[in-house]
Every structure is written in C-alpha cells, then in structure tokens.
Design goal:
By secondary structure, the chain is an alpha/beta fold. It contains nine helices and seven strands; from the N terminus they run H-E-E-H-E-H-H-E-H-H-E-H-E-H-H-E. It has one domain: Thiamin diphosphate (ThDP)-binding fold, Pyr/PP domains (Rossmann fold). It has a seven-stranded mixed β-sheet with strand order 2-1-3-4-6-5-7, sandwiched between helices. Helix 1 packs across helix 7 and helix 3 crosses helix 4.
C-alpha cells in the first residue's frame, strides 16, 4: 500500500501539549514540512522567545535556542551571521514580537538579515494569562481590558505585516490565516517561499499567520475559527504584501 501521508521527520513523535483547538500545532507542522521539503533538518535552527511558541522546543526534531522575551530576532541575527549556511528562523507570538520585542524585530527587518520570521498572531497573550496584546482587536475582551479594547486608552491594533512592509530591506512580507484548509495550504506555500528566499541568500522574510486562542478568548475551537474569519481577517487582510 502506498503511503500518502506521514509525520514530518522534523517533528518529534510526541503528543502536542498545546491547548485543545489551538493552531500553534498546525504552525509547527507546516514549518516542519517545509524544512523536510528542503532537506534542511540537520542545518535548521529555530529561535524561540518566551510564550506559547516556546513549547515547540519539545516538538521540533532539530536544534532550538530559547531567547529572552522579545529578543529572538537579536539571537537569530547573531546565529545566522556566524553560521550563514544554516536555515535560521524565529517563531514568535504577537505579545512577544509586537510589544516587548518591537524594537528587535524592526531593526532586524530593517537590516535585511537573511533569516525568516514566523509570526503567530492570535490577538492575545496566551501563556501568561490572556492579557491584551498589541494586536487585540477593538472591543475584544482580555484580562486587562474586561470590557473590550478601547482605542481611546490603548490605541488601535498594530498591523505588523504592514509596518514591516514600510521598510526597504525585506524581500518577502505576507499574511495568511489558518482557519480553513484552503488558507492552511496558502500559509504552507508562504512559509516555503520564505525559507526558499533564505536558502537562495536573499534578505529578510516575514510571514504572519492569523491564529486562535480558544482558552483565553473563552470560546470553543469551532467558534474561534469563525472569529478569525469574521473579525480577524477583515482587520488584518490576507495576502502577499511584498514578494521580491
């Protein structure tokens, strides 16, 4: 019998510890499949921050480095400059990348570092208690805005892909969603494109993925997918903003 699907070699044969319905597991799978496609497992290095993304160090079957909160781009820069033949990527959430790590990601992208950022945007701080993040939507509730985000107090949600796209150096900037099979396939192609850019010696690539957080959103996994479609995507439009 012909095998049509198997667990990516770049994933450990372990059970996921992400919350039920969380799409972080999907991101891990897509990244692992891309690394397998390019046969780069022995040279792949993932740089992790602090947050839900950090759990992926238990699941990837290649080298991982955990950095201080928000500092993954700085660590990835040092690693890539020392080992330019390695496939280096950061895997960051919105609280990490767009809040405490905002300066790090902006300068990394502005320098055009030849690495890749996988940015998981679920609109909330997941691991640390469901606080409002820079990407929390107006009216969306969190533990630090129980009545919903008020732009008069907290400003508006930050569109990180658009902000990165204002810089000269990046070669690939894109946003995808993970709420439907069709969108997942587009996200997979985007991750592969970003890795291919790096392997070809091109500049910095930024891939934003609209995800969910059923636990901290206080909804079922099914309803969280509807939220992405009805709320997240209208504010964070999908597509490739730059593809040089």
């Amino acid at each position: 019998m012909q095998k049509t699907y198997a667990r990516p070699v770049s994933l450990q044969p372990t059970v996921s510890g992400f919350c039920p319905g969380c799409l972080h597991g999907m991101v891990c799978k897509l990244v692992a499949e891309a690394i397998d496609k390019f046969d780069m497992r022995e040279k792949a290095v993932g740089i992790l921050p602090i947050g839900c993304a950090t759990l992926s160090m238990e699941y990837y079957n290649f080298d991982m480095v955990v950095s201080a909160h928000g500092r993954a781009p700085a660590v990835a820069t040092g690693y890539k400059r020392c080992r330019p033949d390695n496939l280096v990527f950061t895997y960051q959430g919105d609280g990490d990348l767009a809040a405490i790590g905002l300066a790090e990601i902006m300068h990394c992208a502005n320098r055009g570092e030849k690495l890749t950022t996988i940015f998981v945007n679920n609109g909330i701080y997941g691991m640390t208690g469901g606080q409002m993040a820079p990407t929390t939507l107006v009216g969306q509730k969190a533990t630090t805005c129980v009545n919903g985000r008020d732009p008069a107090q907290a400003g508006y949600p930050m569109r990180m892909a658009e902000i990165i796209n204002t810089l000269e150096a990046p070669v690939y900037v894109a946003r995808f969603a993970l709420n439907t099979p069709a969108n997942v396939l587009k996200a997979k192609a985007g991750i592969e494109k970003a890795f291919k850019n790096q392997l070809e010696g091109k500049g910095y690539s930024f891939v934003e993925l609209l995800s969910n957080c059923p636990t901290n959103w206080g909804v079922s996994p099914e309803d969280s997918l509807k939220w992405i479609q009805e709320k997240s995507i209208p504010y964070f439009p999908l597509g490739e903003l730059r593809n040089n």
